[in-house]
Amino acid sequence: MEETVADIRWRMMFLCAIFAAGTIDFISPVKGQLGHRCPRAFFNFGTSLTDTGNLLNEFPFSPDVTKFADPENPPYGDAFFRRPAKRYCNGRLIPDFISLAFDIPLLDAYISPTVFNFRHGVNFAGDRVGVSSDGTGLPLFLPLQIKQFIRFKNSALTAQSQVECLSSISSLPPRMHFQEGLYTLEFGSSDIRSALQRGLSTASILRNIIPAAIQSILRALEILYQYEARNFLIYNVFPQGCSPQILTLLDEANLPKDDLGCIAEINQLDEAYNSELFLSLENLRASLPDTNIMLFDFYNATNEILRNPSKYGFDSSSTLSACCGASGIRDYNFNPNVTCANFGSNKCADPDRYIFWDGIHFTESFYRTMSKFILNGQYSTPKINYSDLCNLIFTNFGSLATYEQVYGELCNVWFV
């Protein structure tokens, strides 16, 4: 039976009520979860928020790829790497900080043109991708990333069974690393944003896009489980109604804003997605009792920083502004015709004081704070404090650290 507008509105209000203000108990124990162990490797699936080079390796120097953001050029990568590093950020992303905390090399992108080190995991994430292909984006969507993982694991284990492959075994994860690794999935934001850009209504997104996205994520987790994955970290969606891009592009629509100055209707879509994801993962845990499935509340963790920027070292007057961009509408410093790293763009004096980097993605300093939340078990259900469990090292988290200081002895040709 077709839902009426009233039914959809009620469903949205119900889901948002469940999720709103972080009222869900995110530290309650989960029945049947495994004893926690320190991950031996990390396998990341996601969007441009966690992509460390797949997109730009697959589509190098492509104007169609870089017209909205151009990480092939400075000032992308200025922090830590001191050069563009195929990341949509001025420096490190969450997967990078997690690698640093566990004192292992940064995760190489699955699509690596030359030298690689996959001993401690692989990053399959790509830009402008969702949980499924909508025909308008690039093809590195979630089902393809899962297939890439399957091929990678099969190839790695096959190589380790052949004497002729001994020279490459040291760069590949053994079976134990696959079994005890942490599988991280960061999806949802691109699906909602793509639906909005295609002109889909709120009702259509609630009725079709969000349920389909959740089901695709659940299916991905089930497939990974079949391939011995047992430890998962799932991100929900951050409040996209607060991003300079969305605020700029939808300014003429005069949509109501919340007390932070964010577009309320967009954030309500994110909340609806997050609520359905939370409930779906609860059910999945019941069917996969021998797993650890941790949900990181990206939404409320971001809201915490937006509401208390000074507490975390951010400038309270620029929480909704892009550090790198160009003058456009209001004070958002986002102009779709002059994006970061393109001619006419500007960069703020102190990126560490900004939350948003290029209007779409975040700064290194924001990701640093998010990484600490994740590793300390904050804003997570169940709460797994990897910092204490694994005696993690945060020495190289600082803004003055550089790639050369930390990894100077490693080959870094993959930057090129």
Keywords:
two-stranded antiparallel sheet, about 425 residues, six-stranded mixed beta sheet, alpha/beta
What does this protein look like?
- With 416 residues, the chain is α/β, with parallel strands linked by helices.
- Helices cover 38% and strands 7% of the residues.
- The strands form 2 sheets. The protein has a 6-stranded mixed beta sheet with strand order 2-1-3-4-5-8. Strands 6-7 form a two-stranded antiparallel ribbon.
- The longest helix is centred in the middle third of the chain and has 25 residues.
- About 5% of the residues have low confidence.
Placed side by side, the strands forming the largest sheet appear as 2-1-3-4-5-8
Q: Which H/E pattern describes the elements?
A: HEHHHEHHHEHHEHHEHEEHEHH
Uncertain stretches: 13-33
Oligomer: single chain
Tell me the span between the first and last alpha carbons. 54 Å
**Amount of helix:** 25-40%
Shape category? globular
The helix tally amounts to 15
The main pleated sheet reads as: 6 strands, mixed
CA radius of gyration: 20 Å
Output mean pLDDT: 87
User: Beta-strand level of the residues, as a percent range?
Assistant: 5-15%
Number of strands: 8
Structural class by secondary-structure content: alpha/beta
